[in-house]
C-alpha cells in the first residue's frame, strides 16, 4: 500500500558531475522552440487508445533480456470510495490474486511461481488515494509466457470473481496489514491528518480503511466499487520488455478491446485540499515515538509540465531546492548546528496540489531551535538569494544528471520505463525520452538566470496555505511547544535579522602532489569469468571485470582482512564508527563540504568501511572520471581527515536518530532477538545513546589510520564499463604507490557464538494489539558449494510454503519473512530465520503452523511441483543477476574474501539447479531444522494492569 503523505520530495538526485557533456556534439539539429511548444511523447513508445477508452503504452527494451514488465494502471483509489466502502479499493487489489476468470482461487500465484515469478518481487500491486497499480514481470522466452502475462492483466481489469469465501478469507490478511501499521506513527497521524487535510475528502479516505470497515467487507461492497471504477476509460496497459512491440500492441488490442465501455459511468471527480488564510498547526506526541521532527509545508498550485516553458519552470524549482539542500547540508556539519539534519523539497502532495517542504530532525528534542533555523534560512534566501557560485554548481550538477540519463537510455531497465509510463497516464508526467530531456535541459539552463530562481522564495514561502507540523516523544524531561508556542517561534523567526550567505571555494587541486608510481608486476587472465588480475609492486592485487551492462558506470570495491576484530573490546565502538568519523571529516585539505564542492562536475565517490572481519572501500564512477575515482581511493589511505566540528555534528545526528529508540516496542523485540542470537556477546549490544558515548573520535581516527596504513594485503575490484588499458597507468600511479608495510594480517575470532538448545523469550512492550514473532534455527555447517546451494533452495521453498500457509490459508499475517543464510568467517555456520506479525491471540497458532510446515518437509519432503517452482525461480533470478554490475561486484568481493572460486556461479551452479530434487531439500530440512536447537522471541503488548 502506498500513501501520499507530506514529505520532502526528491526532485532530482544530485551526484557529482562534469561540465563537458558527452552528447553535446551529437546534437546536430538546431532547436527552434518557444515556451508554448508542446512537449511531445517519446516517439519510441507505441501509444494508443482502444475504442472502449483503454489506453496502452508499449516499448521494446532488452534490459533485462528475456523479460517483460507489465502494468495495469487504474485511475481510481480510495478517494473514490463511498462512505460504506472504506478500504474496498485496497481489498480489491488483494482479491486480484484470489480468483479470476482464467485463474481460480490461488492458481494465479501458483502458476506464476511455476514460471519463476516471485510473489512480492516480480508480482505486486499498490493502492493509493487516487490510483491502483498492478505490476508483473514475466519471462519472454516463449510467446506463451508473455501471452499468459497479458491474460493476467486482462483478468485484473475485468475478470475478478470475488468469491464470497475468498473475500472473507482475504479480510484477515488485510486486517493484519492494518495491524502492522498500528503504533506511534499511526497514533500521531490520527492527530495531524485532520489538520493537513482539513476540509478535504482525503482526511477520511486512507487506503487501508479501518479495522471495522475491513471486517465488514463483503462481496457486494467490493463488486460495486469494481463495477463502478474498473472500467476501460480509467485504465491503461503498459508493457516494456524484450519483445516485438507490434506483436504486443496486437495482443493488447485483441485481449482488451472486448471489455465493454461503461454505459452510464459515474464521474471520476477530482478532490481539492482547501487553502488556508491562517497557518494550520499540529504538535503531536507519543511515548513510543523515536525522534523529534518539525516541518513547514506550503501548498502550491499544481505544476503542470506540458510545454517547454513549463519544463523551464520545473528546472528552476529543482535548482532552488538543490541549492537550499546544499546549504542545509553544510549547516548540519557544524558542531553547533541547530538541527541534526534538514531538507527542502517540492513535489506532488495529492493530485490537485503541490507542496514546498522545509523539514528538520531536531537535535536534543529542541523543536523550537530547528523550526527557527528552517525559517531563518528560508528568509535568508528570500532576502539575499543564492550566490552565483552556488548557482553555477547546481546547473553543472543538473546538466550532468540529465546527460547521464541520456547516456544510459539504451541500457535503462524496463521497470523504470514502465513506472514512468504509469505516472504519465495517471498524472500526465511528461515523457519525451532521456535524450530529448537532456537536449532540452541543455538548451534551457542558459536561459535561466539567478534572479529567476531567487524569486521563487517569495512565491513559495508565504503566510497563506502554510502548515506547521511537529512530532516528538512524550517524555517528562522534554519540553514540547504547544501549537501556539510553535507558531510564535515561526513568526518571530521571520522577523529575525539575517546576513547574506557566504562561502569559500578552494581553487587547490584535489591532490596537491601526484605520488611516485609503482608498477604492475604480474598480469594474468581468468578467462572463465572474464577477469583480469594484476599483482602490484606494493603487494596489492587488482581484479578487473569489464562489462557492457551499463554505459556510464564503473563500480569499485576493496577489502583487507582484519577489521574491528583486531581491536580490544574497549575500542570496539570507536572502531565500528571509525569509517563514519573519517567520512564526516573530508579528505586531505578539504572538509566534507569543501570536498563536495571540489567534486562538482565529477561522478566519483568512495566510501570507507570497517566491519568485524575486514576493512575496505566501496564506490563508483563514470568512466570519464576514472582518474578522480583513483585519486579518492589513494587519499582514503594517505590523507584521511579528522574534523572535530564535523565529528561533533555526527554524534549529534546519531543521538537524534536513535534518541528515544528504547521506547519503541519493535526495537525491543528486534534487540532481544539480536542479542539472544549472539549469546549476549559484548560486541552484539543494541545501538543506544550509551554506546555513542563510548565513541572516542581521536581513537577512531587512529584505528582508521592503522587499518589503512598498509595496502599490501588489499584487493581492489573494478566492475563495469572499465577500460583495462586506461586503468593500468592509473592503478600504477594511485594504487601501486600506496604504502607497503609488509604486514600479514588476518581477522580474529572474537568469540561471538550462536546459542544452543531451545531458547524461548517473551517481550512485553507497547499498547497496540499486535505481536511479532521471530524464530531462528542456527548452527555449524560444512561450508561447501553444494551445501550452501541446498540451504538457499530450502529457504526459497520455505518462503513459498510459509506464505501459502500462514498468509493464504490461515489469513493470520500480512507478509511473513523467511531467510536462509550462511557464512564462513569466523567459523562456518548457517541461520534460517522466520519472522511474522499477527494478533497476540494468534501468535501461538501461527508458530505451530510454522513448525508443522517444517515437520512436513522433514517427514515427507516437498512436492515435485514446489521444487520445480524453486528451480525456476533460481534459474530466472540468476539469469538477470549475471547481467548486473552490482551482482558481480558483490560476488567477486565475497568469493575472494572467503577464498572460493568465482567460476562456480556459472556451469556448476546451473548443474546444481538442474539436479535439485525433493530428496535433497528434505535432507537439508532434516539437517538444518533441529527442533531441539532454536531461538524464539515473541513481542506482545504490555500486560494489562490488574
List its salient traits:
alpha+beta, Cytochrome Bc1 Complex, Chain A, domain 1, 7-stranded mixed beta sheet, globular, 946 residues, 18% strand, 4 domains
Q: What does it look like?
A:
The chain is of the alpha+beta class and 946 residues long. It folds into 4 domains: 46-256, 2-Layer Sandwich (Cytochrome Bc1 Complex, Chain A, domain 1); 280-412 and 425-494, Cytochrome Bc1 Complex, Chain A, domain 1 (2-Layer Sandwich), CATH 3.30.830.10; 520-734, Metalloenzyme, LuxS/M16 peptidase-like (Cytochrome Bc1 Complex, Chain A, domain 1); 758-940, Cytochrome Bc1 Complex, Chain A, domain 1 (2-Layer Sandwich). The protein has 31 helices and 23 strands. The strands form 4 sheets. The protein has a 7-stranded mixed sheet with strand order 12-13-14-18-15-17-16, sandwiched between helices. A 6-stranded mixed sheet has the order 1-2-6-3-5-4, sandwiched between helices. Helix 20 runs parallel beside helix 25. The longest helix is centred in the middle third of the chain and has 25 residues, at 308-332. The protein starts with 45 loop residues before the first strand and ends in a 6-residue tail after the last strand. Residues 1-31 have low confidence and may be disordered.
Weakly predicted, low-confidence segments: 1-31
What is the third-level CATH name, the topology of the largest domain? Cytochrome Bc1 Complex, Chain A, domain 1
Share of residues in helices: 40-55%
Q: Which of globular, elongated, flat, extended, rod-shaped describes the shape?
A: globular
Q: Kindly provide the name of the CATH class of the largest domain.
A: Alpha Beta
- Gyration radius (Cα, Å) is 29 Å
- Please identify the structural class as seen in this structure: alpha+beta
Spatial ordering of strands, largest sheet: 12-13-14-18-15-17-16
Largest sheet: 7 strands, mixed
Beta fraction of the residues?
Answer: 15-25%
Count of structural domains: 4
Our measurement of the CA-to-CA distance between the termini, rounded to an integer number of angstroms, reads 38 Å
Number of helices: 31
How many E strands? Answer: 23
- CATH architecture designation of the largest domain: 2-Layer Sandwich
How confident overall, as mean pLDDT? Answer: 94
- The CATH superfamily of the largest domain bears the name Metalloenzyme, LuxS/M16 peptidase-like
Amino acid at each position: 500500500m502506498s500513501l501520499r503523505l507530506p514529505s520532502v520530495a526528491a526532485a532530482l538526485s544530485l551526484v557529482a558531475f562534469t561540465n563537458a557533456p558527452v552528447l553535446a556534439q551529437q546534437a546536430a539539429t538546431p532547436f527552434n522552440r518557444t515556451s508554448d511548444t508542446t512537449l511531445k511523447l517519446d516517439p519510441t513508445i507505441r501509444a494508443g487508445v482502444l475504442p472502449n477508452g483503454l489506453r496502452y503504452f508499449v516499448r521494446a527494451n532488452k534490459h533485462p533480456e528475456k523479460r517483460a514488465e507489465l502494468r495495469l494502471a487504474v485511475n481510481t483509489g480510495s478517494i473514490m470510495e463511498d462512505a460504506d466502502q472504506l478500504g474496498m479499493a485496497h481489498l480489491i487489489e488483494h482479491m486480484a490474486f484470489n480468483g479470476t476468470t482464467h485463474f481460480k482461487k490461488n492458481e494465479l500465484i501458483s502458476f506464476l511461481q511455476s514460471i519463476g515469478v516471485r510473489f512480492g518481487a516480480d508480482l505486486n500491486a499498490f493502492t493509493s488515494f487516487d490510483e491502483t497499480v498492478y505490476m508483473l514481470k514475466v519471462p519472454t522466452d516463449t510467446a506463451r509466457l508473455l501471452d499468459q502475462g497479458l491474460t493476467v492483466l486482462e483478468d485484473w481489469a475485468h475478470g475478478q470473481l470475488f468469491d464470497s469465501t475468498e473475500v472473507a478469507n482475504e479480510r484477515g490478511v488485510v486486517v493484519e496489514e492494518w495491524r502492522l501499521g498500528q503504533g506511534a506513527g499511526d497514533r500521531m497521524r490520527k492527530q495531524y491528518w485532520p489538520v493537513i487535510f482539513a476540509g478535504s475528502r482525503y482526511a477520511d479516505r486512507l487506503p487501508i480503511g479501518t479495522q471495522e470497515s475491513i471486517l465488514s467487507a463483503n462481496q457486494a461492497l467490493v463488486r460495486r466499487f469494481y463495477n463502478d471504477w474498473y472500467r476501460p476509460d480509467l485504465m491503461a496497459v503498459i508493457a516494456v520488455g524484450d519483445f516485438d512491440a507490434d506483436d504486443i500492441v496486437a495482443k493488447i488490442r485483441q485481449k482488451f478491446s472486448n471489455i465493454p465501455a461503461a454505459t452510464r459511468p459515474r464521474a471520476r471527480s477530482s478532490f481539492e485540499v482547501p487553502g488556508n488564510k491562517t497557518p494550520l498547526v499540529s504538535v503531536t506526541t507519543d511515548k513510543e515515538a523515536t525522534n523529534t521532527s518539525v516541518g513547514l509545508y506550503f501548498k502550491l498550485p499544481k505544476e503542470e509540465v506540458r510545454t517547454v516553458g513549463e519544463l523551464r519552470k520545473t528546472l528552476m524549482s529543482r535548482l532552488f531546492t538543490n541549492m537550499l539542500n546544499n546549504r542545509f547540508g553544510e549547516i548540519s556539519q557544524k558542531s553547533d548546528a541547530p538541527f541534526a539534519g534538514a531538507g527542502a523539497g517540492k513535489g506532488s502532495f495529492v493530485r490537485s496540489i503541490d507542496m514546498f517542504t522545509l523539514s528538520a530532525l531536531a537535535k536534543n528534542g529542541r523543536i523550537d531551535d530547528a523550526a527557527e533555523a528552517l525559517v531563518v534560512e528560508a528568509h535568508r534566501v528570500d532576502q539575499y538569494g543564492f550566490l552565483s557560485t552556488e548557482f553555477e554548481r547546481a546547473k553543472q550538477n543538473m546538466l550532468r544528471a540529465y546527460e547521464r540519463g541520456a547516456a544510459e537510455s539504451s541500457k535503462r531497465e524496463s521497470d523504470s520505463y514502465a513506472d514512468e509510463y504509469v505516472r504519465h497516464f495517471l498524472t500526465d508526467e511528461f515523457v519525451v525520452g532521456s535524450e530529448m530531456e537532456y537536449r532540452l535541459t541543455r538548451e534551457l539552463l542558459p536561459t535561466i538566470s539567478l534572479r529567476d530562481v531567487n524569486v521563487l522564495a517569495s512565491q513559495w514561502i508565504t503566510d497563506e496555505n502554510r502548515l506547521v507540523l511537529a512530532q516528538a516523544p512524550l517524555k517528562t524531561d522534554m519540553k514540547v511547544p504547544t501549537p501556539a508556542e510553535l507558531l510564535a517561534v515561526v513568526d518571530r523567526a521571520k522577523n529575525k535579522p539575517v546576513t547574506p550567505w557566504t562561502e569559500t571555494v578552494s581553487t587547490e587541486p584535489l591532490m596537491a602532489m601526484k605520488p611516485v608510481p609503482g608498477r604492475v608486476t604480474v598480469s594474468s587472465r581468468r578467462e572463465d569469468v572474464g577477469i583480469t588480475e594484476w599483482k602490484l609492486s606494493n603487494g596489492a592485487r587488482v581484479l578487473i571485470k569489464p562489462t557492457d551492462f551499463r554505459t556510464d558506470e564503473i563500480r569499485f570495491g576493496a577489502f583487507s582482512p582484519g577489521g574491528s576484530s583486531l581491536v580490544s573490546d574497549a575500542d570496539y565502538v570507536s572502531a565500528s564508527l571509525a569509517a563514519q568519523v573519517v567520512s564526516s571529516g573530508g579528505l586531505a585539505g578539504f572538509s566534507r563540504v569543501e570536498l563536495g564542492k571540489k567534486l562538482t562536475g565529477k561522478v566519483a565517490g568512495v566510501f570507507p568501511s570497517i566491519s568485524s572481519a575486514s576493512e575496505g572501500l566501496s564506490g563508483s564512477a563514470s568512466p570519464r572520471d576514472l582518474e578522480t575515482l583513483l585519486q579518492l581511493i589513494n587519499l582514503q589511505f594517505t590523507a584521511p581527515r579528522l574534523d572535530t566540528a564535523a565529528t561533533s555534528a555526527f554524534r549529534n545526528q546519531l543521538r537524534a536518530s536513535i534518541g528515544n529508540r528504547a521506547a519503541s516496542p519493535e526495537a525491543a523485540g528486534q534487540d532481544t532477538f539480536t542479542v539472544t542470537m549472539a549469546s549476549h556477546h559484548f560486541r552484539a549490544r543494541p545501538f543506544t545513546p550509551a554506546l555513542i558515548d563510548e565513541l572516542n573520535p581521536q581513537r577512531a581516527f587512529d584505528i582508521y589510520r592503522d587499518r589503512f596504513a598498509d595496502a599490501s594485503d588489499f584487493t581492489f575490484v573494478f566492475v563495469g564499463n572499465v577500460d583495462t588499458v586506461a586503468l593500468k597507468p592509473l592503478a600504477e600511479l594511485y594504487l601501486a604507490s600506496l604504502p607497503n608495510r609488509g604486514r600479514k594480517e588476518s581477522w580474529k575470532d572474537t568469540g561471538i557464538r550462536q546459542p544452543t538448545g531451545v531458547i524461548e523469550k517473551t517481550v512485553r512492550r507497547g499498547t497496540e494489539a499486535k505481536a511479532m514473532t521471530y524464530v531462528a534455527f542456527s548452527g555449524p555447517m560444512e561450508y561447501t558449494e553444494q551445501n550452501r546451494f541446498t540451504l538457499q533452495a530450502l529457504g526459497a521453498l520455505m518462503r513459498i510454503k510459509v506464505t501459502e500457509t500462514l498468509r493464504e490459508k490461515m489469513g493470520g499475517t500480512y507478509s511473513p519473512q523467511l531467510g536462509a543464510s550462511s557464512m564462513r568467517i569466523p567459523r562456518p555456520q548457517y541461520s534460517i530465520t522466520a519472522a511474522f506479525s499477527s494478533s497476540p491471540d494468534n501468535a501461538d497458532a501461527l508458530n505451530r503452523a510454522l513448525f508443522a510446515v517444517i515437520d512436513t518437509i522433514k517427514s515427507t519432503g516437498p512436492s515435485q511441483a514446489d521444487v520445480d517452482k524453486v528451480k525456476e525461480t533460481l534459474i530466472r533470478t540468476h539469469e538477470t543477476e549475471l547481467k548486473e554490475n552490482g551482482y558481480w561486484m558483490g560476488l567477486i568481493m565475497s568469493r575472494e574474501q572467503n577464498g572460493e572460486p568465482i567460476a562456480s556461479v556459472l556451469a556448476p551452479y546451473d548443474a546444481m539447479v538442474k539436479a535439485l530434487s525433493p530428496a535433497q531439500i528434505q535432507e537439508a530440512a532434516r539437517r538444518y531444522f533441529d527442533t531441539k536447537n532454536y531461538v524464539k522471541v515473541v513481542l506482545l503488548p504490555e500486560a494489562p494492569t490488574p
